[in-house]
Write a structure and sequence with these properties.
single chain; 7-stranded mixed beta sheet; 4-stranded antiparallel beta sheet; 13 helices; globular
């Protein structure tokens, strides 16, 4: 089946004389088994609420079908999807290679938490080649983490090349696939061992709950992910699993609208004199564009804009003039957002030298004319020194 069909039919209730279209919410802590044989059979599927109910299994099945994996497990947030996926493969004395364009909380987890337990991290250029990765590999490197594109500066990574170098050195490749929503990119098909998402973003799609997903490429990887989550005591509420699954049913139409609106905004913004450059993988000038064209089937609504240098007072007037765009973190919901980011504070392997402010936009589902009118008003206010 094609992706548009998978996200509609996967994870649906089993056929019976009368059944709901979508999987209902099943809240439970204790699971009862009528007989001992049922107990033995249940031990292989649903046994206790923390390990998931039919609500969780339905979401996992649907995400797994979309990602093209062996098995998908849920985490209570996108960050824990990142951290659990790393913890599944490392122990004291091990080494991690982490993209320098990583989501800041993932970076902080490596710099602070892992370091406390004797796991070292080396940050690498997100545009690294296979040879670059091979040169950074150590005998104790267990994980090479990619985030493609980076959610701040949007470099697209060469996952097949990174996989080649990582596997040659005995490491697994964990890919943060949130930007593509599992829809526009398939890291597992590109060779990654794990594809994870902050399902909070595009899968949920309505900015109303937190969920993470971790999809394993094979049984061996899946077992390590399962035990990491089990031992961490991770739990996703049945209600949040339901909300994520409900959002996922419309993922394909939402992603296409986000893509359409983002392209329109980029075209409009590129003509503004206040803009220095656009950070969008579909733009030919964006780092990694050729790789994006090769490995992705589309682009989402998240992108960046580097403005020409302006004063803080000017920038405040820009943001304070918004009537439509929200000023807030996260993205992937139906609403348009804009936030001032500081990539210069989150680099060690590379540097960020643009003197102007970096704005991260999320193109929501509103009418494009209303969006550009809102931005025009903001730019006008910014110029009124």
């Amino acid at each position: 089946m094609k992706d548009n069909t998978k996200i509609v039919v996967a994870g649906r209730p089993h056929q019976r004389p009368a059944h709901p279209v979508n999987q209902p919410v099943e809240r439970a802590s204790t699971i009862l088994f009528p007989t001992y044989d049922d107990y033995l059979a249940g031990a292989k599927s649903i046994t206790y609420g923390r390990l998931g109910t039919s609500s969780h299994r339905a979401l996992e099945e649907t995400v797994n079908a979309l990602e093209g994996g062996y098995e998908t497990r849920l985490a209570p947030s996108g960050l824990q999807a990142c951290t659990a996926a790393i913890l599944a493969f490392v122990a004291a004395g091990d080494h991690v290679l982490m993209t320098d364009a990583a989501y800041d909380p993932t970076r902080k987890f490596c710099e602070k938490f892992l370091k406390r337990f004797g796991v070292e991290t080396t940050f690498y250029d997100p545009l690294a080649t296979a040879q670059d990765i091979a040169e950074l590999m150590q005998s104790n490197t267990k994980v090479v983490f990619v985030e493609s594109p980076g959610s701040l500066t949007f470099e697209v990574q060469d996952i097949p090349a990174i996989v080649e170098a990582a596997h040659a050195g005995g490491a697994v490749v964990v890919a943060d696939n949130t930007w593509a929503g599992g829809y526009f990119c398939k890291p597992i098909a590109l060779g990654a061992d794990v594809s994870l998402q902050a399902a909070t973003k595009y899968i949920v799609g309505h900015a109303d709950c937190l969920v993470g997903t971790i999809t394993a490429a094979n049984e061996k990887i899946a077992q390590k992910i399962y035990y990491a989550l089990l031992q961490l005591g991770s739990n996703v509420s049945a209600d949040d699993a339901y909300l994520a699954l409900r959002g996922m049913r419309t993922l394909s139409v939402r992603m296409k609208r986000h893509e359409e609106n983002a392209h329109a905004l980029v075209k409009w913004l590129s003509k503004r004199s206040e803009v220095e450059r656009i950070l969008h993988p579909a733009n030919k000038t964006c780092p990694g564009h050729a790789i994006w064209k090769r490995d992705f089937t589309g682009s989402s609504g998240l992108f960046g804009v580097v403005l020409k240098p302006v004063s803080l007072a000017d920038l405040k007037r820009f943001f304070n003039s918004f009537k439509l765009f929200g000023i807030g973190f996260s993205w992937g919901g139906f609403e348009s957002l804009c936030v001032h980011m500081h990539p210069e504070h989150n680099r060690t392997a590379t540097s960020w030298d643009d003197p102007g402010p970096v704005l991260r936009f999320h193109a929501g589902l509103e009418d494009i004319d209303d969006m550009t009118n809102d931005l025009d008003r903001a730019f006008t206010a910014m110029a009124q020194s």
